[in-house]
Amino acid sequence: MRTIGKRIGVSVGVLAGLTALVIGIATATLDAPMNDLLLLATFLLASGGVSIGLAFAAPRWPVLRRANTLRIKLFVVSLLTATLALSTVVITSSLMFISSHDLALLMGLITFAFGISVFVAMASSEPVVAGLVELTQGVRRLSEGDMDAHVPVRSDDEVGQLATAFNNMTLQLRASLDKQHGVEQARRELIVAVSHDLRTPLASIRAMVESLSDGVVTDEETVPRYLRRTVSEVESLGQLINDLFELSQLDSGLLELRIESASVDDVISDTLESMSAQAGEKHLHLDGAVNGGPLQAQMDTRRVQRVLANLVQNAIRHTPADGSIDVSAWDEGPAVRVAVSDSGEGIAEHDLGRLFERAYRSDTSRARASGGAGLGLAIAKGIVEAHGGRIWVDSVVGSGSTFAFTLPKESTTVERGEVAAVR
């Protein structure tokens, strides 16, 4: 209602202004009597009011509502506008100041002007109609599943802006669809990988338990070995279930982080201590260093230690015997960088972009043989990003790899000791 009232007010103002302009011109040039000027003003106001009223009513006319093309509607409106304007000129001229001879000539000129005005109105509206037709075709192609639908942008006006917005929308839809396909593919790969990682230890546990329960294995050396192997497989299954649960928390935004200022030195030393036994089994040299003195960062200590442990464990798996693994940290201004470097075989370039995908393994057979469900790096990425940091890898085949991540030194959203849910 407010918009309609504003349009009516503007229309009345324009009509009054144009009427006053015409009366002023007539007074200055024709020296017409006051009665004639009043009659002229009355007629202009009346005809102009009728024209404005028809303009407001035209969109609601049944003939225009039933018209299925914009060309017909524009033709009817332009025809109506020209007819009203020229009728005003003819009637006013015949009433006030023109002879019958001149009126006949004027009618001929008006007929010519009428045809030209309607043609110009239709010709000038043709680019708008053509642009809308192209846009309609593009929308139809998009609705039929053509993600490459594109509309040419032929102007900078509202139609051109609409075409640009449509093209941007199709690009975003295509990117979203590609992302959705990638997520779906990753989900299928995760299901396949986890199914294998569940089935293999369960089959091993079942075989060993059945051997023990049926009395097939009875010697004193094999029975304890089977029991130890069963416990180890159960622990592996428990770790896999914990990983899946943590991933589900990261995906749903329900992973809670207890953020506080903590020592990076302590996290590194605790991780090296817990990983030293695994490194010793492969005769690997495991070392750590903090450059620039004690470092503090905003973090959930337990979660960050999980990240570092995953990276060190990954390095142990992929570093041959008698190799070395170095854990280092240093100050980077607003953040602390932590890096895990190994002297392993390195990572092929085509694998670098997918290492942090869940259940992705660059060497499937060896990864499964050495343990790990392919979820450790995905979990590490989720935890680091939940802290507001980033994680990446640099590697050269044959020269080893370096996994690094950053942690903020100052917290801008979480107060010390506060529990924050990752959303």
What does this structure look like?
Helices cover 64% and strands 12% of the residues. With 423 residues, the protein is an alpha+beta fold. Strand 5 (324-332) and strand 6 form a beta hairpin. The longest helix is centred in the middle third of the chain and has 56 residues, at 158-213. The two termini are 42 Å apart. The model is unreliable at 364-371 and 412-423 (pLDDT under 50).
Any chance you could write out the topology, listing elements then pairs?
Elements: H1 2-30, H2 34-57, H3 62-66, H4 70-96, H5 100-143, H6 158-213, H7 222-252, E1 256-258, E2 260-263, H8 264-281, E3 285-290, E4 296-299, H9 301-317, E5 324-332, E6 335-342, H10 349-352, H11 364-369, H12 376-386, E7 391-396, E8 400-408, E9 419-421
Parallel strand pairs: 3-5
Antiparallel strand pairs: 1-9, 2-4, 5-6, 6-8, 7-8
How would you sum up this structure in a few lines?
The chain has twelve helices and nine strands.
Q: Give, in spatial order, the strands making up the sheet with the most strands.
A: 3-5-6-8-7
Rounded to the nearest angstrom, the distance between the terminal CA atoms is 42 Å
Work out the strand percent: 5-15%
Spans of at least 5 consecutive residues with low confidence:
364-371, 412-423
The beta-strand count equals 9
Cα-atom radius of gyration: 40 Å
Major β-sheet annotation: 5 strands, mixed
| Outline type | elongated
Number of helices: 12
Task: Label the structural class.
Answer: alpha+beta
Mean of the pLDDT scores? 78
Instruction: Tell me the series of helices and strands, N- to C-terminal.
Output: HHHHHHHEEHEEHEEHHHEEE
Share of helical residues: 55-70%
